[in-house]
Amino acid sequence: xxxxxxxxxxELLELENLGVRYRVLGxxxxxxxxxxxxxxxxxxxxxxxxxxxxxxxxxxxxGSGKTSLARAIVGxxxxxxxHIRFRGHPIEGGSDRALRQVRREIGMMFQDPVxxxxxxxxxxxxxxxxxxxxxxxxxxxxxxxxxxxMVGLGPNYLRMYxxxxxxxxARRVGVARALALNPALVIADEPTxxxxxxxxxxxxxxxxxLQAANGMxxxxxxxxxxxxRHVSTRIGIMxxxxxxxxxxxxxxxxxxxxxxxxGLIAAVPQPDPDLRRDTPPLEGEIPSLRNRPSGCEFHxxxxxxxxxxxxxxxxxxxxxxxxxxxxxxPLL
Length: 332
Known about the structure:
Elements: E1 13-23, H1 28-32, E2 39-50, E3 55-59, H2 66-73, E4 81-86, E5 89-90, H3 96-104, E6 106-109, H4 123-127, H5 129-133, H6 140-150, H7 167-178, E7 185-189, H8 197-214, E8 217-222, H9 225-231, E9 234-239, E10 242-248, H10 249-254, H11 259-266, H12 307-311, E11 316-320, E12 323-326
Parallel strand pairs: 3-8, 3-9, 6-7, 7-8
Antiparallel strand pairs: 1-2, 1-4, 4-5, 9-10, 10-12, 11-12
């Protein structure tokens, strides 16, 4: 099915002030602990955009809300605030048919490649499942062979079950499944997690090759900065569910504007034994989402914090073309 026309300046995906809230207490537990918070905000006021053919990297520590944001885009978790637009049209509030079409054009690679595959189905059945879900009439045997060949695995893998696959093989099956319907956007959640370095390179090269061939947009969710530095064109840094900095990847790595971004980049291990650190790049632990700090939520870990940072939350502001930061005293 041909894709809808997209103007030269149109964005593929746009998030505007997105929020994701989970209920953490209910029923008897809420009655027994009346002062405890009943909800948890995993994502707050997140705004980003992904252009056609672009690779956007979403980076942050574990628990920063990256996966919750990614799952909200495809409707696996509901969003509590904000708007999601795909090809300029809102995803929420549409008809079931419209939502189904959007989900057909967005592929998802999950964080755990083996756990995301049903253990009762063969690889061949799993990678053609999107055709069955969307009622697309194709020769499924032919499609299965095409997809398994596309990701560099032989036809003998079609008869295997997920428990018979290595991590890298399961990841390739996930790629085939996500790209089965030729989506306009693929969301890859930690695509290199748990893989050997050589296998990481193979998976990333596969994704970039398929992106070049299909022209799809990529939203890569990861905590691996060296990986995202080499594969993304733009980057967003998340902290406690908020986007604290965004911009072109090269510019952000060359001169980070937020102290948190600078700390993450400085924390990347260097192969030179002479490059020793006198002090840790980031101090302390990431706070609990149930007990968010006042003011700037990074102030307790920031060496540059002043009293204003403890009481006043910084607004997200533009500091250069296509760059923004949420900090009272940006490093630029």
